[in-house]
Amino acid sequence: MLISFVKKKYSIFTILKNSFSDNANWKKMWRNPEPKKNYDIIIVGGGGHGLGTAYYLAKEHKLKNIAVIEKGWLGGGNTGRNTTIIRSNYLWDESVHLYDHSLKLWENLSSDLNYNVMFSQRGVMNLAHNEHDIKEMKRRISANRLNGIDSKWVNPKEIKDLVPIMNINNLRYPVVGASFQPRGGVARHDAIAWGFAMRADEMGVDIIQNCEVKNIKVESGKVLGVETSKGFIGSEKIGVVASGHTSVLAKTAGINLPLQSRPLQALVSEPIKPLINTVVMSNAVHAYVSQSDKGELVIGAGTDGYNSFTQRGGYNIIEDTIRAMVELYPIFGKMKMLRQWGGIVDICPDASPIISKSEIQGLYFNCGWGTGGFKATPGSANVFAHTIANDNPHKINAPFSLERFVSGKLIDEHGAAAVAH
User: Which backbone phi and psi does 335 adopt, to 5 degrees?
Assistant: First the structure.
């Protein structure tokens, strides 16, 4: 049976038209189908990476019999629990190629999806607090420039001009310079999930929510499908994009992935008038901050120091982060925090992701993003879709295969990424 899908278009005219009906006539963004018995491809995980993979499989590879299976609601995992920072100023060539591929997709994504993902290129600044930071960052800037990345060094005066509220002369964390990527910025986390979901649904992808995958069924070295809370669903190709729980699902197929899952916390303040118009990060402080369009300060911290699958962390991490933030930005001292949350990040030994085939025919993994998953969302989805469709990696994600843990060709981004993995 041929199903007809009507493309939803958003413009000033559709907004005006719906305003006359008190916005009561907007159509649902995607269907809520029951799962079929079999699909050509199943994507496990309904976050940005998983939904984006389905979108690119349908759009670029013309594959339609696809299901995205999500145990909760779309974007309810790490996609909705991060601080939305986007940049590509990583150290190693392999990382730069992947993250800049993603950044280039971000730059046109609202137009491609006809849905505003609210990508704001306000720049990303990584602070240096000592001589070691200066040498490390200037090394990374030089590596970035060799790869055509818009990374530059800014001195304390230039930092003060960009962020007047920063106390660059504080005794605990004196600011002696920074790297700055003007093309970096932030985006709306739920918009990327909704945009990909809507367009994938229009191309025939089944998006199945509240359906937990409990087991990946394998026989004679090939995948057969997945056991779910809604019964068995068959497929000859399965892509697992389940962030912190990917290692758990992999074990049901007999694969032990080199991953550790840890809580990563973030918090937001009460909304205030525009105060900071860029993203500021610090590896030494283990804190980063930007201001949302609603006026909230979005503050991120480092990972907790233990493995866990809970979406919350220790208060000591929040306390240390707030102390450091107040030292750098005394004006924040009397503000109230509005809410705090945590996500589960899966971390590889070299702090780089896995986008790879596996030893089991038809089983693919996209995981190990640590604290850097959101920025890579469209690029990761794009190359993962290529890998699944062709059963071979895209040249961009080829270095991020599982084979590197055997060959020793690791991509060590610990510390070089200027975040606390």
Answer: -80, 155
In terms of DSSP bridges, do strands 222-228 and 206-208 run parallel, antiparallel, or are they unpaired? unpaired
Write the CA distances from 143 to 15, 92, 137, integer angstroms. Answer: 46, 7, 10
Higher pLDDT among residues 301 and 373, named by residue: 373
| Position 283 confidence tier, pLDDT thresholds 50, 70, 90 | confident
- Residue 274 CA to residue 271 CA, distance in Å, equals 9
| Cα 62 off chain centre by | 25
Strands (DSSP E) along 304-419, which ranges? 337-347, 354-357, 363-367
Centre a 10 Å sphere on the Cβ of residue 153 and count the other Cβ atoms it contains: 15
Q: How many residues does the chain have?
A: 421
Beta bridge partners of 231: 228
- CA-to-CA separations, 205 to 196, 226, 241, 333, in angstroms, rounded: 11, 17, 16, 48
**What's the distance, CA 342 to chain centroid?**
14
In a 13 Å sphere around the CA of 62, the CA atoms on its Cβ side amount to 0
Can you read off the two tokens belonging to residue 284? 């030494």
Residue 398: phi and psi, rounded to 5, are: -55, -40
What element of type H or E holds 81?
none
Which phi and psi (to 5°) does residue 376 adopt? -95, 0
Report the distance separating Cα 91 and Cα 346, nearest Å. Answer: 20
CB 306 within 8 A of CB 293: no
For residue 180, list its beta bridge partners: 125, 152
Secondary structure of 117-175 as H, E, C letters: CCCECCCEEEEECCHHHHHHHHHHHHHHHHCCCCCEEECHHHHHHHCCCCCCCCCCCCC
pLDDT tens digits along 33-62: 999 999 999 999 999 999 999 999 999 999
For residues 348 and 261, give the distance between their C-alpha atoms in angstroms, rounded to a whole number: 9
Q: Helix, strand or coil for residue 324?
A: helix
Q: How large is the average pLDDT for residues 114-138?
A: 95
Averaged confidence pLDDT in the chain: 92
Distance CA 103, CA 121 (A): 10
The structure's pTM equals 0.94
How would you write 380-396 as a 3-class SS string? HHHHHHHHHHHCCCCCC
Give the Cα separation of 199 and 152 in Å (integer).
Answer: 37
Across the range 409-421, mean pLDDT stands at: 67
Other CB atoms within a 10 A radius of the CB of residue 14 amount to 12
The pLDDT confidence band at residue 11, using thresholds 50, 70 and 90, is: confident
Q: Please state, in angstroms and rounded to a whole number, the distance separating the CA atoms of residues 54 and 352.
A: 23
- The whole-number average pLDDT for the span 101-113 is 97
